[in-house]
Amino acid sequence: MVKIGISVDNHFDVNHEDGFERLKQQAEYLVSQGYQYYLNAGDTYNDFTKSLAYFRALQAEVGDAVTVRFIAGNHDLVNGISYDEAQSDLDPLYFHEKTLAIPNTDAVLIGNNGWYDYSLAQLGQAKTDAEYAQWKRAFWIDRGIDQPLSDRERMQRVLRTTEEALIATDGKQRIYVTHFVPDRSFQVFAGDRPYWQMATALMGSQALGDLLGQYRVDHVAFGHLHFRDQPRLLHHGMYYHQPLGYGNKRLFEWHSHDWLTEWRDTLVTIDVPTKK
Q1: Does residue 11 carry a pLDDT above 80?
Q2: Do residues 156 and 192 make contact, with C-beta atoms less than 8 angstroms apart?
Q3: What residue stretches are annotated with the Calcineurin-like phosphoesterase domain (predicted)?
Q4: Per CATH, is 2-272 categorized as 2.40.10.10?
Q5: Given a cut of 80, is residue 10 above it in pLDDT?
Q6: Is the pLDDT of residue 247 over 90?
Q7: How does pLDDT run across 101-137, given as a tens digit for each residue?
């Protein structure tokens, strides 16, 4: 068996944690528990340069025992990176729009940051694209992200590059890792909270879930929506939504009061059989 670990929404800076101290504990755990791959699905820091430095340091700490890869969530993209850089192959560890075959297995890892197209919005077509975009610019952290195109156009690239990867890996056991929500069934609504009603438009895209179902993807891991769910069989595959989330005074989403405990408890594990 090949043991794969996937984590998301670690939010070191928001949680007032020193990731470069924590990574020593993480590395020890990953190695001691026999993980051979560790993927992070985004929102590590509010600055891409810090996220990149952290994952480089984590890879150096685990050495050859664990292969480390990461994608960017919206928080990672707020500072330290342009749109063009975010779409480029800027580092071997950066896994956006990349695939990685796992040797001696039929499995392949596929990474894509993802995005949103307002299709998960609670208010649906009662609001226009312009109104959702205007609200984002006024109230949402994503207003600081460099983006020379619309949200729908950005999401179209996600769908195109995802489909290209799925076609290229036909016949393989596919493990798809993204940051944003890929299916409306995971969405959480609150009719008495106008702020959240608008924020739901920025959670993800139903079109991505439909595409992953069309190609019968085996495993899908994501985050962004800070509610933890049990693994769910959906669209012919298992979907994993186990974000670490926030553990501060303003917003406390943890089950304990220790970041490392939360990281261990929300670490998704997928075992891939080796060829006989």
Answers
A1: yes
A2: no
A3: 9-226
A4: no
A5: yes
A6: yes
A7: 999 999 999 999 999 999 999 988 889 999 999 999 9
Please say if the pLDDT value at position 276 is more than 80: no
pLDDT the model gives residue 195: 84
Counting DSSP H helices and E strands in the chain, the numbers are 8, 10
69, 111 contact by CB (below 8 A): yes
- What is the Cα–Cα distance from 120 to 211, expressed in whole angstroms? 15
Question: How far is 218 from 175, CA to CA, in rounded Å?
Answer: 6
CA distance 64 to 40: 18
Helices (H), 126-231: 129-139, 151-168, 194-199, 206-214
Provide the residue ranges of all domains of the chain, joining segments of one domain with +. 2-272
User: By the 8 A CB rule, do 229 and 252 touch?
Assistant: no
Measured CA to CA in angstroms, residue 243 lies from 153, 223, 247, 264 at distances of 27, 5, 12, 11
Query: From CA 23, how far away is CA 54, in angstroms rounded?
Result: 8
Q: What does pLDDT average to over the chain?
A: 96
Strand 67-70 and strand 98-101: the pairing is unpaired
Q: Sort residue 132 into left (φ over 0), alpha (ψ -120 to 50) or beta.
A: alpha
Token pair listed for 216: 């019968």
Q: Which of 63, 58, 64, 96 is nearest to 77 (CA)?
A: 96
* CA distances (Å), origin 233, targets 10, 72, 106, 185: 25, 25, 21, 11
